[in-house]
Amino acid sequence: MAFIQLDRHKLQHNYNYLNTLFKSRNIEWGVVSKVLCGNIPFIKELIALGVKEIHDSRISNLKIVKTLQPDIQTVYIKPPAQRSIRRIVKYADVSFNTEIDTIKMLSEEAGRQKKIHKIIVMIEMGDLREGVMGEDLIEFYGTILHLPNIEIAGIGTNLNCLSGVMPTQDKLIQLSLYKQLIEAKFNISIQWVSGGTSVAIPLILKNARPMAVNHFRIGEALFFANDLFTGKLIKGMESDVFKLYAEVIEITEKPDTPTGELGENVAGHTFEVSDNQDLSQSSLRAILDVGLLDMQPQYLEPDDPNITIVDASSDMLVMDITHSTANYKIGDLISFKMRYMGALYLLNSNYIEKVVA
Asked: Where is the Alanine racemase N-terminal domain (predicted)?
């Protein structure tokens, strides 16, 4: 059975790196746990780090966090669905919001539950996902400012997740100006200016973020050490907190070109044979016990640099091991690094075992 392994020591190393980085700059931060897909042993490892604030986009995952450690501040990081209001108030201390009617429903439900529910007002700044338009912000803020059982904990923005708009210094300065505008208009003080996700870390490392931006939500950098500006790794961090291990279930020398009438495969792809293709070529192929039901091969990178992914079907992954110096045999495990989306697929699969090392 294929399994994904979390290295607790590398996770601890990355957490310490980020915590030191943020503390030295007087920045508050929370860990985005959604890649863990509610896996209880992995969430326990996260809690054991000393995390004070956990963000997720699934209420069921926040429920698990609250069950394991009620004192952790939980943050629901997308605009609430109105049918989920009761559970959001119950399990999320904070939620990200963009709709007045939804906030009014949160206010009413928080009253019923005898709670104060905190909200972050998300502002649209070019990535075209969630967010109140800038020209509507003052009116929006004034409408919700005095709702009972609601505390506006701050403002925030989301960049890069949909359209790829990067959180440049200019973007974060603009977010800071929204803070000044609101504070001046309503004579209030805004606690959080949440400047985004892991993609903003390069700005922080360069000391290029405006001082008013004092909060970030970090997931990908913690688990994968990615510098999303350069595509490289953040120096001093570990990139392989997660590893996928899949077992070899067949090794056979096979032709590189299929024979017979060709149609679409299960993924909707058709193999194309060029006129000048050498039909006599073959390769040593290994089949692994993981497939498209569990992962997407484009997000996997074999640790062995001399093997390549050929393709995958629903339950099997085919590798070309012709040029490997390893003497693979049936029953061996082949390990892979993963990109963020690769881990998300695998951790969401009920057919992949999850282990801690």
From this structure: 7-226
